């Protein structure tokens, strides 16, 4: 089916107590693996792209991969732009086929962040796509941008209300104690804050830094309003390690299709595990029915 807008999807997820898994695609194989995993579970999925992946390939290539696999699939697929600060790139994504865009101006003071995010609101409205924006600073490394623990700022629920009221977001990214990358110690996730932010904003929350969180943490965050969970680092590791593992077990095999198939299967299993964990199984039909009702 054609790519879907993120806004009604995350609203459906939040209202029905599940979260949609959002994976940072690497190439065509990982894109296909995430959609096929979603298909096996009859679940929606978000294929998202970092700015650096778009720079490496191109808007055209990425849109063609995601459309190719999504259009042949019966499950809803979103193509979303993850953390981006570049308004020209954001607009080019909306223009060329992304169905959701993210502005990350979280390093700026509140008013500047809001002003920049409002410019992206205009872009999203012009192209009819979903939108994510961030307030507070999430720790760790994302797309070569580093936020140290000392610089991370947890999101204040009252600020979150003002921000979300002005922006009408599909997903609200905020800092609640999670971090991008592998955790060094036990992460301290502020569940009360997640609940307070969700109560204040009524907006589906995007939980960043999904790699390394426990099943219990996912369940508690989703029960409190996390409707999108981002996974990137875990995929990077499986992407590389699955090839190393195949080579270790088959040192004389130089048939590339068997090598990339081993990688594909490992990535698909990873995706399916997260989709299941976030409660996505069999949620696609009800979401698609809700879309038909509002059409
Ligand atoms: P991880 O790299 O920790 O999985 O976080 C991904 C993320 O939040 C992307 O925005």
Automatic annotation (TrEMBL):
Pathway the protein contributes to: Carbohydrate biosynthesis; Calvin cycle
Active site, per annotation: 82 (proton donor)
Co-factor(s): Zn(2+)
Keywords: Calvin cycle, Metal-binding, Zinc
GO MF annotation terms: aldehyde-lyase activity; zinc ion binding
PROSITE patterns hit by this protein: ALDOLASE_CLASS_II_2 (PS00806)
Protein transport recorded as keyword: no
One example of a Gene Ontology biological process annotation: reductive pentose-phosphate cycle
Pfam families linked to this entry: F_bP_aldolase
Binding-site residues for dihydroxyacetone phosphate, renumbered to this chain: 181, 209-211, 230-233
Annotated cofactor note: Binds 2 Zn(2+) ions per subunit. One is catalytic and the other provides a structural contribution.
Residues that coordinate or bind Zn(2+) 2: 104, 134
Residues bound to Zn(2+) 1: 83, 180, 208
UniProt-listed NCBIfam families: cbbA (TIGR00167)
Identification of the protein by name: Ketose-bisphosphate aldolase
Lineage: Bacteria, Pseudomonadati, Pseudomonadota, Alphaproteobacteria, Sphingomonadales
């Amino acid at each position: 089916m054609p790519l879907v807008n993120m806004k009604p999807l995350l609203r459906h997820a939040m209202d029905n107590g599940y979260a949609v898994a959002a994976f940072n695609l690497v190439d065509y194989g990982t894109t296909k693996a995430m959609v096929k995993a979603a298909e096996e579970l009859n679940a929606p999925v978000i294929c998202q792209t970092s700015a650096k992946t778009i720079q490496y390939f191109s808007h055209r290539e990425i849109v063609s991969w995601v459309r190719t696999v999504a259009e042949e699939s019966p499950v809803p697929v979103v193509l979303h732009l993850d953390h981006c600060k570049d308004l020209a790139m954001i607009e080019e994504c909306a223009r060329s086929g992304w169905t959701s865009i993210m502005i990350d101006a979280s390093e700026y003071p509140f008013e500047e962040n809001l002003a920049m995010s409002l410019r992206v609101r205009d872009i999203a409205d012009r192209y009819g796509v979903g939108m994510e924006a961030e307030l507070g600073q999430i720790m760790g490394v994302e797309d070569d941008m580093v936020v140290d623990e000392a610089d991370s700022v947890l999101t204040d629920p009252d600020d979150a209300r003002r921000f979300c009221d002005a922006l009408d977001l599909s997903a609200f990214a905020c800092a609640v104690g999670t971090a991008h990358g592998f955790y060094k110690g036990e992460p301290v996730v502020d569940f009360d804050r997640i609940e307070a932010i969700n109560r204040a904003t009524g907006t589906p929350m995007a939980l960043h830094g999904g790699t390394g969180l426990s099943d219990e943490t996912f369940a508690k965050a989703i029960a409190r309003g996390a409707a999108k969970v981002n996974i990137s680092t875990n995929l990077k590791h499986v992407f590389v390690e699955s090839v190393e593992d195949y080579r270790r077990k088959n040192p004389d095999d130089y048939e590339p299709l068997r090598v990339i198939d081993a990688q594909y299967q490992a990535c698909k299993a990873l995706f399916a595990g997260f989709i299941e964990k976030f409660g996505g199984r069999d949620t696609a039909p009800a979401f698609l029915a809700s879309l038909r009702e509002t059409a």
